[in-house]
Structure formats: C-alpha cells, structure tokens
Design a protein that fits this description.
- The protein is of the alpha+beta class.
- It folds into two domains: 113 residues, CBS-domain, CATH 3.10.580.10; 80 residues, Alpha-Beta Plaits (2-Layer Sandwich).
- It is built from eight helices and ten strands.
- The strands form three sheets. A four-stranded antiparallel beta sheet has the order 8-9-7-10. Strands 1-2-3 form a three-stranded mixed beta sheet. The chain has a three-stranded mixed beta sheet with strand order 4-5-6.
- α3 packs across α4.
- The longest helix has 17 residues.
- It is elongated.
Amino acid sequence: MNIAQYILNDVTPLSINDVVKEAQLVFNQLTYSHIPISEDGVYLGCLSETDSHCFDADKEINEYRYALEQFFVREQTNWIDVLEAFAQNSSNIMPILNEKNDYIGYYELNDIINIFNDTPFLHEVGSVLVVEKGIKDYSFSEISQIVESNNARLLGAFISKAENDVVQVTLKLNNAGLNEIMQSFRRYSYNVVSEFAEDTYMQNLKERSEYLDKYLNI
C-alpha cells in the first residue's frame, strides 16, 4: 500500500539554534507530541512537548541536544512498520527521511490509523475469534488450515498477546460456520478465548452436566 499521499510538510523543523521558547509557541499552536529539530538542514531528532516545557525558555535548543529523540521512518517504509514506530516512540508525529537522509516531511498518527481502519480486517463484515496455544505449538499455517477446512475465509490475524509461553492469536473471519470452526480449534488443542452466542459447544456441555446432576439426584 502506497502511503506517500499522507506525507505532510506544513510543519518546518526548528533549528537547533532556535530558543526553547519558539518550540513552546509551536506546541501551544499545534497538538503534536514532538517537533522535528534540524541543524544546517540535517535532521537531528525530535523535541518532545513535555521536555520543552521543562527547559529554560530563553536558552537555545542546542543546550538540550541530549534530550532529542532520534526516531524516524523512510519514505518507503511499510505502513505497518510506520504504525509500529508511532507506538514504540509514543508520538503522534513521525519524521520521514529519504535514502539520502534528507528530511522530506512527516506522517500524522491519525492518518496511519485511518489506513488500518480501511483494511479488510476492520472494514469487512465478519467475526473476531481469539484462540490461544503454547508458543511452541501454534502455527499460522495450521490456523489457516483449520479456518479454510471449514469453508471459511481468514480476513486477517495477528498475535495479540504473548505471556508465560502462551500465545493469543486474534482472527477476523467471515461468518461462515463459526461454531464448527471453534470446535475444530478445540480438536487441535487450541483454547478458544472468545465467547459467542453461536458457540453451542460449551452450552451443550453445560446442559449435559446439568442433566447428569439432575439424574444423579433422582
């Protein structure tokens, strides 16, 4: 997916020789968490809003060069990796450098999130299923085989949790045979974390248990 159309240029990097007060004024006008800082046209890193309000407003940003956060992406970086960079750096602005390390603009977090919202994983109608299994025992090929063997389509999948050698995988499926799919996952020793009204397997077990208790109490 080409995301070049989302490159913005309306925020010019401040110079390392500008005073902190200028950065504070920019932050007061915008809603960004960081501002790009350059030296002689070369991108150095980003100054965070939090830091700017902690520094002496009359000193040059150069006095606080150590506080610059040196994150960026390339113009050819995949949108998923761009989204990951946003998350890793707790920023809502992401500087973009070309192959020559020239600053060419930035991405805004909301634009990249909107791309994710338009993917089939979120956009298409379907059901979300969460399954879990040992980290050494699961495989995406097996998960796909289970889904497709039940005449269903896998719209997307990602690891949503990994803890204590157990992995949770969140799946987006079309609505075909959801109950059969869940039973198939159980046969392959996956634990189905999600609960659905269509999940009659657990309901049947509960009804049989209640019937057995009633029978034994006669």
